[in-house]
Amino acid sequence: MRIAQSVQRIIAPELLRLRAGVLVTVVRVEVSKDLHAAQVHYAVTGADHAEVQEQLEEMTGGLRRKLAKGLATKKVPTVSFIAALEPGDGRP
C-alpha cells in the first residue's frame, strides 16, 4: 500500500472526532519522496477553516504516534494540514 494511502487511512477516522456537526474530509495526501513530510489537504463543512486548522495542529503529535504504529517504515512523516477552499481541489 502506498504511504499516502496509509496516512489517509490512519488520519481520516481521527478527523471525525473534532466536534459534533463539523465534517472534515481528507481531499488528498502528499508525502515527500524522503518520507519526512506529509501534507494532508482537507475540506471543512460546518465550521471556520481557521478554527479547524488550529484543532488539527494540536492533534499532530498524537497523529504522528498513530502513524508510527500503523506504517511499516522506519521514517514517520511530519504531518501538516492544508485547507482546500473547494472540496476536491486539494489546494487552498
From TrEMBL:
Annotated signal peptide: none
Tagged with keyword Metal-binding: no
UniProt entry tagged with the keyword Transmembrane: no
Pfam families, sorted: RBFA
GO process terms (BP): rRNA processing
Highest taxon of the lineage: Bacteria
Keyword set, alphabetical order: Ribosome biogenesis
Protein name, as recorded: Ribosome-binding factor A
The species this protein was found in: Candidatus Amphirhobacter heronislandensis
